[in-house]
Amino acid sequence: MDLPLLNRALHPIPKAPVRIVHLGLGAFHRSHQAWYTQQAGDAANWGIAAFTGRRPDAATALAGQDGLFTLVERADTGDSFTVVGSIVEAVDGADIQRLTEVMAAPATAVVTLTITEAAYGLGSDGKLDISAPEVAADLARLGSDQGNPATPLGRLVLALAARRDAGAGPLAVVCCDNLSSNGTVAREAVAGFAGAWDTGLAAWIGTNVSFVSTSVDRITPRTTGEDVAGVQAACGYRDSSPVIAEPFSSWVLSGDFPAGRPRWEDAGALFVEDIEPYENRKLWLLNGAHSLLAYAGQLRGHSTVAEALADPLCMQAVEAFWDEAEANLSGTEATADLQIPAYRAALLARFGNARIAHNLAQIALDGSTKLRMRAVPVLQAERAAGRSGAAAALMIAAWMDCSSALPGFQDPLGDEVAAANSLAGAGRVRALLAVVDPALAADDAVVELVQGQCGRFAGHPASG
Q: Boundaries of each Mannitol dehydrogenase N-terminal domain copy (predicted)?
């Protein structure tokens, strides 16, 4: 039997007017911000125009379904299915004309971003590196009027210029990428790009655009062909673009919304004055444990988070790292509401959900970048407090072991990693540590500590 394609005639969810623009249409945005927007009590007033990044595929597929998709919440006890309709336009990111149109519309109040960490292009000084090839190329295109920008950052700045020219008023940019102080990162990137192109635009942005920091959380593994078939069998329609996610979700936001926002708190979003403790809780406890399991688990022969967590050696390493991280989260009035013991218990339950196939190889990507946020701050804090930081050092050591032991190991600084791996002994450890954090690499005691942790997982495949 030929089942119907998911569409708004089949599922009559009214199309809300576009008031949110999203850059970086992907699975996480759909499982998180789009889901929160649909759950808001005033969802009927808040439609999303979502633009892809480098490829149009996701927009093409969703456009054929009127923006609808199925969110599959995968719990240990079974799956539940929800049709999400908050995306009312799914657009190829290269369609600059449509992007500038919706950004210039007075009704547009919010821009959300999931464009990945690398897209912000900040240098070691926290400012935009305008000499980076992609940034320089976009600035040249805008300066010569000979083509549209190709990067999400360039496209956003061009669209903000259109809003300024239209006199459409202020709005909020909400960074939902997984990095510390992400609102500040977005502000520096946008201001740096605008300032390099048009200082008047940079001044307008400084006055009219707020940058909201967030901490986002929902495990969203890649959708497989089996998942697509499972939705079809369970729901009785065809959906080319379902999203699989764990039942848990979290969204913490801090910042101003000068043109309004949806009532995301209806779905459990939390609005706070100081987001840093929540960022660190998530980056260290959840993301840090993920990275540790990704490296240790693969060295032990595991392929998913649930498998690695069931390995006593991996579990012991996670608990030790959590103890170090917790020691640097607790004890102040600002962190009194973090409920860290309950958070740790919830993480164990989430990680142990074997029906969420969260692949270690996927988590392990971009390790040198991730370790700077997940392991390095804990190691530095522990050393500053007079403690060893051995558990955080073990995470870095496991990454080092993976860099030489795993075929197809990928890292944004792959050339530097390969050069370091051509060395031996302490020289190799110091060179690899320099890829992650040069200051730590200059500390002989840290080099010795990390070197002593190398090999803890390598050569010890899990039994069975």
A: 19-265
